[in-house]
């Protein structure tokens, strides 16, 4: 009997360790809406940036304030958030440090753009 327990104990311990899932830090905002992005998208995970609520981009003024993320990642345009819940609010001109994940649209090389849309699925304020 002892032999059987000793034989299966390592297997049980292994299954126990594999079934323990790392605790994921929950998002500060629940994103339920989806965006109408083009077919070419890229998944970004655990990116760092600054969320702004502003009515202007480096390329010029906008007709109304939008949520936009600026990152320090090379090659990324400013990111416009296309699925921010209506109940989330920030003062115009306010900015906050964030960690975020989601699906970003990959624009064709021949497109001249000042920003790129992103469908967020995770956002944590720093």
TrEMBL record:
Protein name: Lipoprotein
Organism this protein belongs to: Sphingobacterium olei
């Amino acid at each position: 009997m002892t032999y059987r327990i000793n034989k299966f104990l390592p297997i049980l311990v292994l299954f126990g360790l594999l079934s323990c899932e790392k605790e994921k830090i929950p998002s500060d905002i629940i994103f339920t809406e989806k965006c109408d992005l083009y077919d070419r998208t890229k998944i970004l995970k655990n990116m760092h940036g600054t969320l702004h609520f502003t009515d202007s981009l480096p390329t010029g003024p906008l007709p109304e304030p939008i949520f936009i993320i600026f990152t320090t990642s090379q090659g990324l345009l400013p990111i416009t958030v296309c699925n921010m819940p209506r109940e989330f609010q920030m003062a115009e001109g306010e900015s906050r440090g964030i960690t975020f994940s989601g699906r970003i649209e990959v624009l064709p090389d021949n497109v001249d753009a000042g920003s790129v849309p992103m469908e967020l699925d995770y956002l944590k304020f720093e």
